[in-house]
Automatic annotation (TrEMBL), chains A, B:
Binds 1 Mn(2+) or Fe(2+) ion per subunit. Binds 1 zinc ion per subunit. Its cofactor is Mn(2+); Fe(2+); Zn(2+). Fe cation binds at H129. Zn(2+) binds at C97, C100, C137, C140. Signal peptide: none annotated. This is Fur family transcriptional regulator. One of its GO terms (biological process) is regulation of secondary metabolite biosynthetic process. It comes from the Bacteria. GO terms for molecular function: DNA-binding transcription factor activity; transcription cis-regulatory region binding; zinc ion binding. The keyword Coiled coil does not apply. Keywords: DNA-binding, Iron, Metal-binding, Repressor, Transcription, Transcription regulation, Zinc.
DNA sequence: CTGCATGCAAATAGTTTGCATGACG
DNA sequence: CGTCATGCAAACTATTTGCATGCAG
């Protein structure tokens, strides 16, 4: 499944004339496999396990390339941090726990209707969107109750 | 109308024990009046017109305070830039033109339903959200057609 | 082989902080 | 008057860039 995803990413890279290096592959692997929307730090740590010489710069450069060719999306937060998603590199809703920082991808079909409504009302040509919900996940709610 | 908004902001500041300085007032004025979601730069330029000695640091510090007391929201984008809204300092949808960078506040009542749906499905306790649509506004669409 | 990718270090940009001075309450 | 805010400059942090070397194609 995410095996396929990795193939897709590699294919697109080759198509665009980029080279497939071991470091890039390692970064792609994490971006393709991970459904947890990792940040740069996390990717870097992971990549170093297999490729100890890898530099932060390479991780950043790889992400820039992947964003450019539309195979990775960035989710930037107001605190300056960013998380990345190469598993579903298209706009989709996020459900973010402000306690444990986990990010889920809920299904929200009604979003399509909302977009259509917006087009009709405003005349905008919609290109993409961003929908994040912030809250406390059930697990963290339990923990908070126990602490009291 | 936004006169009232300014009063609100001032009141909250006083309540929390913060002082009302001319520089803060100037920043608050812009944040309260403006429906265009200005960035720090824009606020700074405006404030300098009336208070030439004002520093960037003061603008930043004022924004930090206003965010803390919930009277201003920040909209951070993936390119690192941020825009601020003191006119409607609560979560609401944005409609952003990627050409001219204008930001509108559309009405989308169905968002409430969406949130309820989410709570039922996931058990999350929702605290806030962020909903941005990116596209081309009607004016920019016209310009693009003329250029062809 | 040729040129793009790597990785180190230096540069950058936006934001934050420390501190002496000034002014709100 | 005491304390907090200002404004300058320095510090900081995350990201980007330049360049010599390495390696993919």
């Amino acid at each position: 499944m995410s095996e396929k995803r990795l193939e897709q990413m590699i294919g697109k890279l080759k198509n665009k004339g980029y080279r497939i290096t071991p470091q890039r592959l390692a970064v792609l692997n994490i971006l393709a496999e991970s459904t947890e929307h990792p940040d740069v730090e996390k990717i870097y740590i992971q990549v170093k396990k297999n490729f100890p010489t890898t530099s932060m710069a390479t991780v950043y450069k790889t992400i820039v390339v992947m964003k450019e060719i539309g195979e990775v999306i960035e989710i930037a937060f107001s605190d300056g941090s960013s998380r990345y998603d190469g598993n579903k590199p298209y706009p989709h809703p996020h459900l973010i726990c402000t306690k444990c920082k986990n990010i889920l991808d809920p299904d929200l079909d009604s979003l399509k209707n909302m977009t259509e409504e917006l087009v009709n009302e405003t005349g905008f040509m919609i290109q993409s969107h961003r929908l994040d919900f912030f809250g406390i996940c059930p697990e963290c709610q339990k923990k908070m109750n126990l602490e009291k």
